[in-house]
Amino acid sequence: MVNRRVLTDQGSIMVVEVELAEGFHGDVDQHVHEQVSYIKKGSCEFEVGGVKRILQVGDVQYIPSNVVHRVKVIEDCVILDVFTPIREDLVE
């Protein structure tokens, strides 16, 4: 399960709250946007540029522009994703 809610998309910054269910495995992703992911609830494994890291509540992951990345959810989690520039594909 993936549930996204755009919190703001003003100027060149976008903040999206993402709820992911335990056991979710994201597809490999790559985009021109810089991304910062803050773990608000739960835990997950981020793989960024081939480097794996376990994140828990309060941890932050930076994803540079055009770097291949993916997420695997260990425990139901809520992530705040910040993108710049705005991801037009996520705007309703």
UniProtKB/TrEMBL annotation:
Domain Cupin type-2 residues, every copy: 17-83
Pfam families per UniProt: Cupin_2 (PF07883)
Stated name of the protein: Cupin domain-containing protein
Organism listed in the record: Halalkalibacter kiskunsagensis
